[in-house]
Specification:
Strand order of the largest sheet: 6-7-8-9-10-11-12-13-14-16-17-18
CATH class of the largest domain: Mainly Beta
Number of domains: 2
Shape: globular
CATH architecture of the largest domain: Beta Barrel
Number of helices: 1
Number of strands: 18
Length: about 325
C-alpha cells in the first residue's frame, strides 16, 4: 500500500473518509461529532487546535489513500487514525505489469524449433499519475518480444525484451527476462498437461517498484472435446525493490475457451494478484482483471490471440486491449 502525503482539516459537523485509488474516488463513510475542542492537542503525526486538525502522512500505500476530514472532534480524528492504521497494516498486491498478458498452456516449443512472439498491449484507461517514481500506465503502449527455443521434449528456454511507448517518454527499453521451463513429456500420457516456468529478470525503476523479480508459474491444462482450460497458480518474489518485504505474492491466472469453429476459439481469461501468501491484502488493493479473448488457429505454426480486459478493482488498470502474434520457425 502506497500512501501519499496529505493535509486534513476538521471543524464541526462531520468527518468524511474519502479514498482515492487509481482513477476511482470512493467515499468510505461518515462519523458525526458531539464535542468541540477547547485546547491544543498533539499526536505523533497529528496536531489539533481550536477545532481544527492537521495530519501529515509519509507512509507508503497502494493504491494512494487520502483522508479528508470535515467538521469533526478529537475522537473523530482518533477514529480516522485507527482506520488509517488498519489500512497501513494490510498487505497489498504489487503494482500491475502489463507487458506479457497471457495464460500459459503446458505445451513446449518442439525440439529444434524457435517461437518468436510479439505481445502488444495498449492501456485505454489506466493510472494517470506518477506514483512512487513509477510512470503512469494511461495510454501506454507496451511492446514485448519473446523468443523461445525448444531443446527436447521436457525443456525449453525463453527470453523477453520489454519496451514501453508513451507520449511523455517516447519509446523506452523497460527490461529483460529469461524463462526456462520444464514439462511432463507427452509420452508419459498424463491425463492433464503439466509444466513449470521460472522467469527471472530486471526492469527499470521508472516502470516497476521492483527491479529484480522471480516468477514461478506452475501450469496445468487440458483439452476436452471443444473445451479447453488452463490454470496458472503463479508465485512472484521480489529481490530488489519495494516488494521485498512482502515475500511471496500469489498471482493466479485462469483460462476457459471453446472451439467455435476448427479455427476460432472464444473464451475468458482471468489475471489476479491478491497479495502475500502469508496473508492476502484488502480487496481494494488486489488486482483482478477479466479478458474476453479470441484465439485464431489458422495454421500449426501460427499463434494469434487478442482480447479486451476490464479491471475489477481500483488497483487494476480499468481497460486494456491486448494482442499476441507468434510464429514457429524450423530452427
Amino acid at each position: 500500500m502506497r500512501l501519499m502525503a496529505g493535509a486534513f482539516s476538521m471543524n464541526r459537523e462531520v468527518i468524511t473518509f474519502l479514498m482515492v485509488g487509481g482513477s476511482a474516488n470512493r467515499r468510505m463513510g461518515y462519523v458525526p461529532w458531539t464535542a468541540g475542542i477547547s485546547q491544543e492537542t498533539h499526536f505523533p503525526f497529528c496536531s489539533i487546535s481550536g477545532g481544527s486538525c492537521e495530519i501529515r502522512l509519509t507512509e507508503k500505500s497502494s493504491p494512494p489513500l487520502v483522508l479528508v476530514f470535515r467538521r469533526g472532534p478529537v475522537h473523530g480524528c482518533l477514529l480516522a487514525i485507527a482506520f488509517l492504521t488498519l489500512f497501513l497494516a494490510a498487505p497489498q498486491a504489487r503494482a500491475q505489469d502489463n507487458y506479457e498478458i497471457q495464460v500459459y498452456g503446458s505445451d513446449l516449443v518442439d525440439p529444434g524449433h524457435t517461437m518468436v512472439e510479439l505481445h502488444s498491449n495498449f492501456t485505454i484507461d489506466g493510472s494517470k499519475a506518477t506514483v512512487n517514481g513509477v510512470y503512469p500506465t494511461h495510454h501506454a503502449e507496451h511492446e514485448t518480444v519473446e523468443i523461445t527455443h525448444g531443446f527436447n521434449d521436457w525443456f525449453e528456454c525463453g527470453f523477453y525484451i520489454f519496451t514501453s511507448i508513451t507520449d511523455g517518454q517516447g519509446w523506452q527499453w523497460v527490461g529483460d527476462h529469461i524463462r526456462p521451463r520444464v514439462a511432463v513429456p507427452k509420452k508419459w500420457h498424463w491425463p492433464v498437461g503439466v509444466s513449470v516456468s521460472n522467469e527471472i529478470g530486471y526492469q527499470r525503476r521508472q516502470y516497476s517498484e521492483d527491479t529484480w523479480t522471480w516468477e514461478i508459474r506452475p501450469i496445468v491444462d487440458q483439452k476436452v472435446g471443444r473445451w479447453y482450460w488452463s490454470v496458472n497458480p503463479t508465485l512472484d518474489r521480489s529481490f530488489h525493490g519495494e516488494g521485498v518485504n512482502q515475500g511471496v505474492v500469489f498471482s493466479p491466472n485462469l483460462k476457459f475457451s471453446y472451439d467455435l469453429t476448427p479455427k476460432i476459439a472464444g473464451g475468458l481469461e482471468y489475471y489476479g494478484s491478491v497479495g502475500p501468501v502469508t496473508g492476502f491484502g484488502a480487496v481494494s488493493g488486489q488486482q483482478h482483471q477479466i479478458f474476453p479473448a479470441i484465439d485464431l488457429n489458422i495454421a500449426p505454426q501460427w499463434e494469434i490471440n487478442f482480447g479486451l480486459g476490464v479491471g475489477l478493482t481500483g488497483a487494476t488498470d480499468h481497460l486494456i486491449a491486448k494482442m499476441i502474434l507468434g510464429y514457429r520457425f524450423n530452427f
